[in-house]
Amino acid sequence: MNSLLEIEGLNVTALVDGEQRPLIDQLSLSIAAGEAVGLVGESGSGKSMTARSIMRLLAKNVSATGSIHFDGRSVLDMNPKELREYRRSDVAMIFQDPRAAINPVRTVGDFLTEGLRKNTGMSKDEATTRAVDAMTTVGIHRARERMGQYPHEFSGGMLQRVMICSTLLTQTRLLLADEPTTALDVTTQAEVVGLLDALRRDRGLGLLFITHDLDLGAALCDRVCVMYAGRIVECRTAHDFYTHSRHPYSKALFDARPSVDQRVHRLPAIPGSPIALYDVGAACAFEPRCPFSVDACANAVPGLRNVNGGDVRCIRAEDTDTTDLVEERA
Amino acid sequence: MIAAVRTKDVRKVFTVRGQRDQGEHVAVESVSFDLEAGRCLGIVGESGSGKTTLARMIVGLETPTSGTISVCGIDRTSKVRSAGARRAWARRVQLVFQDPYTSLDRRQSGIDCLAETLRLHFDLSEAQQKVRIRELADQVGLTEKQVTSRPAQLSGGQRQRLAIARALAVEPEVLVLDESVSALDVSVQAQVLNCLADIQASLGVTYLFVSHDLGVIRQMADDVIVMLHGSVVEAGPTAAVLDSPAHEYTQRLKSSVPGPGWRPPISKESV
Amino acid sequence: MTTLVTGPRFRLRGRPGRTPKSAAWWAGGVLVMLALVAIIGPMIYSYGPNDTDLLATGAGPSWAHPFGTDDVGRDLLARILSGARISLISPLLVMLIASTLGTVIAVSAAWLGGRFDSFVGVVVDISLAFPSVLLAVLVVAFAGPGLVAPVAAMAIAYVPYSARIIRSRAIAERSLPYIEALHIQGFRGMSICVHHLIPNIMGMLAALSTLTYGYAMVDLAAISFLGLGVQPPQADWGSMVSEGKSGILAGSPHEALAAGGCIVIAVIAVNILGEALADRAAGRNT
After folding, report:
1. Are B200 and B140 spatial neighbours (Cβ–Cβ below 8 Å)?
2. In chain C, which residues have their Cβ closer than 8 Å to the Cβ of A62?
3. Closest Cα of chain B to A41: distance in Å?
4. Which residues of chain A does B256 touch, with a Cβ-Cβ cutoff of 8 Å?
5. Kind of pairing, strands B40-44 and B23-35?
6. Interchain proximity B259–A258, CB inside 8 Å
7. Contact, B41 vs B7, CB < 8 A?
8. How many other β-carbons are positioned within 10 Å of the β-carbon of residue C41?
9. Which helix (H) or strand (E) is C164 found in, with range?
10. I want to staple C186 with a disulfide (CB 3.0 to 4.6 A). Which of A127, A221, B90, B149 is the partner?
11. Which of A191, A305, A241 has its CA nearest to residue A37?
């Protein structure tokens, strides 16, 4: 299976106040066409930065090293022209706040057709027809009428659908979704996620779904990667995630979430706060908060090892509690 | 027994002056509930449900168009004008906002913020004030260093704890939490929820917990009301409502929550 | 493995479009120097502003007279130093009065809202229609020329300009949740405005005041130029430009240039400083 996206040893650092701050450390990830990969993490985990690196949407003071290959082409080596082409038609990104990504004084129709008309020289009518079709596909009713409306006349969920729609109009093959449903109501979230799922399967889109919600990531994606402090700490198939997970952080993250089905006497909270990579030395970033930590954990960065069917970055992966995440809850 | 918070047929209508929507917007339609002292009532709803407007009316930031609200037995349906009356109300009900950054004065350190509140309501000596501030900081789990810092130097969870400490400083009977943990990371949210539970256990504060997150509501609330488009569609003990939701909307809410075994709904549109 | 460094090629601290920090320090330094010179200069300089030397009228710059002399032989540098006090202080008075009144009106309007706010808005909009210089001229016509009348008139004229800007900032700040939180805690409106609202808009106020100072300096110079400010023989930069204008065509432009140059330097320095303060205020508030 040839990968659509292949990231190998990605390091991202930012120059802040004269100091080089590492944000992502040796990240490796691959996404095949039609595959959905979830990237789950909390603040400072580097998940958004990973997506931006794939798009090469990095601020001037941020530099990325390593290799990112899209369909065999190296993204980090692209010249401006190739980069424009790449961002225009190969990969697309949708963000948490759709209102920040769309011009509020232009109609939604303009937003959708502008790219088509400028880049492919399509006539206005043809572009409009394509846009209306795409809007219908993503579930926006009365599409033709709504083309003439402005962003503020759309709800958050609808606007997010418009964003997804804009990716359908180009030959996007990889969709990066950075917390696209975090700001939406839970019922709207379910619909938008269902839409992404359907599109992904039917069009063979590769999908990188970034979220802080482990359950959501596991439900939508084929594989889930958990990030902590700029590193991937666990990566395995979603199906196995609840039953085979071995990294203490993944388990703790799951346990800390209050469940709809039952109340517990006291939520098993992880002591301390999420940390960013630049505050960590050459050691396991989770060590200070980890219930399984031993002295060796603070000495070196653990490598990714294959344990129980997935990659785990923990020297004690075999010893962490062997009961299933789901069973523990019962 | 006097209910801590009692609402009866509360209705709130906003007049909208816009190009398209002329007329009225009914934000809250005939909501009634009784909340007993020391318990926690969850108010569940999505955007546009009116839950925030209801919370704001209970806290006094809005006044109901019709219906009555009473807190600790005292009616608060009409607008409070005098500063003295507002101070008295502050001792009865307080609010913790959703965004921990903008709900604190960014130029004030935690100590200054708490001291200012204590000075307004209580007549304490310098020494007594210091002791009380330490007490509040311990209650919410803030260290000495954290409480002397400004909000910008604190993490989201720490800021929210400071906001809770500020609310507790006036020793309120009722604490309204308006999506107070929604902006926090999962692991931090758990810490703050535990902290809130401890506070309720030790101080007996009554909670009104507004949230869209069913898991949080399950964990914190004894009873729950579910709001949709301004009306209450379902109410009852949390376990009963969430285990076997009667109303179609509550069922839909519950079925939209991701969890083990959950699958995204099949998109109805042709693809 | 490939490497791509995306850092900037040369470091100009601060983002593009923002004033470099160093420029602000230079500007501040220039202003401090001007102030010092204005205070100390006349005390230590050998010539007085009204000492005439009829043998050296209209002379260009020389060792004896660094800036030259005017048409009655007075040393220009002495007159510049003497005029500096008036030319630097009167805009300061305008700025202080306008900013204070403007803040009071704007914050009250923002806080009280409703009809008071609408009323203030209307009054401000109408007042903005009057050019400040014109208002000053009108006041002088009644009260006579000098220092007090133009300064007072200009201060009043600048109030609407300041108030409008401060009001929108105050409204934005007021809508933040922490103001509501203070309200719920039982603090009085006045107390919230004075202890919380105004301190948080101080950054913008400082920037606005600095720019107001610059505008006031130019406007007051214009008033003096018209002969409505301080009367001769008192020196001030604006009137010196006026007295020197005949000299421009006669081939001795140094009086006008010296005075005009000082005005320009001061205003540029003030503007750079004001922009930098505005950037800082904007950065802090995002």
Report:
1. no
2. 6
3. 9
4. 186-187, 189-190
5. unpaired
6. no
7. no
8. 17
9. helix C148-174
10. B90
11. A241
| Packing angle of the helix pair B156-169, B126-140 (nearest 10 deg) | 130
- In angstroms, what is the C-alpha Rg of chain A? 21
Amino acid at B186: V
Residues found in chain A: 330
How many Å is the maximal CA-CA distance in chain B? Answer: 71
Q: pLDDT digit of tens for each residue in chain C (286 aa)?
A: 232 333 333 433 445 555 567 888 889 899 899 888 888 888 888 888 888 877 777 777 887 788 888 878 888 888 888 888 888 999 999 999 999 999 999 999 999 988 999 999 999 988 888 888 888 888 888 888 878 888 988 898 899 999 999 999 999 999 999 999 999 999 999 999 999 999 999 889 988 999 899 899 998 888 888 888 888 788 888 888 888 888 888 778 888 888 899 999 999 998 888 888 888 877 665 4
**Is residue C185 within 8 angstroms of chain B, CB to CB?**
yes
Residue C116: Cβ within 10 Å count? 12
Strands (E), A2-123: 3-16, 19-32, 36-40, 62-70, 73-74, 91-94
Contact A141, B268 (CB under 8 A): no
Distance CA A280, CA A299 (A): 12
3-state secondary structure of C6: coil
Percentage of chain A modeled with pLDDT above 70: 96
Whether residue A165 has pLDDT greater than 70:
yes
What order do you get walking across the sheet with A231-237 strand by strand? A91-94, A174-178, A206-211, A36-40, A223-228, A231-237, A310-312, A305-307
CB-based contacts of C114: which residues, under 8 Å, 6+ apart? none
C192 touches chain B (CB under 8 A): no
Residues of chain B with pLDDT under 50: 270-271
pTM of the model: 0.86
Name which of C1, C7, C8 is nearest A66 (Cβ-Cβ). C1
- Rounded CA gap, C7 and A16, in Å? 11
Greatest extent of chain C over all pairs of C-alpha atoms, in Å: 82
Residue at C104: amino acid letter? V
- Report the SS3 class of residue B70: strand
Give the pLDDT confidence of A247-275 residue by residue, as tens digits: 999 989 988 999 999 999 999 988 888 88
Is the CB of A63 less than 8 angstroms away from the CB of C4?
yes
C-chain CB neighbours of A17 within 8 Å are: none
Helices C21-44 and C254-285: crossing angle in degrees, nearest 10, is 140
Mean pLDDT score, A198-214? 92
CB distance from C196 to chain B under 8 Å? yes
CA distance B101 to C286: 12
Q: Which of B159, B135, B182, B98 is nearest to A273 (CA)?
A: B159
Helices first, then strands: H and E counts in chain B? 10, 10
Q: Is the distance from CB of C150 to CB of C139 less than 8 angstroms?
A: yes
pLDDT tens, position by position, B105-152: 999 999 999 999 999 999 999 999 999 999 999 999 999 999 999 999
CA distance A144 to A109: 9
Q: How far C50 CA sits from the closest chain B CA (Å)?
A: 52
Cis-peptide into C233, omega within 30 deg = yes
Mutate to test the interface with C, among A26, A56, A65, A68 (most CBs of C within 10 A): A65
Q: How far is C168 from chain A (nearest CA, A)?
A: 21
CA B14/CA B236 separation, integer angstroms: 28
ipTM for the complex? 0.90
**Cβ C103 vs Cβ C205: under 8 Å:** yes
pLDDT given for residue B131 in this prediction = 95
- The whole-angstrom distance between residue B44's C-alpha and the CA centroid of its chain comes to 11
Work out the end-to-end distance of chain A between its first and last CA atoms, rounded to an integer number of angstroms.
39
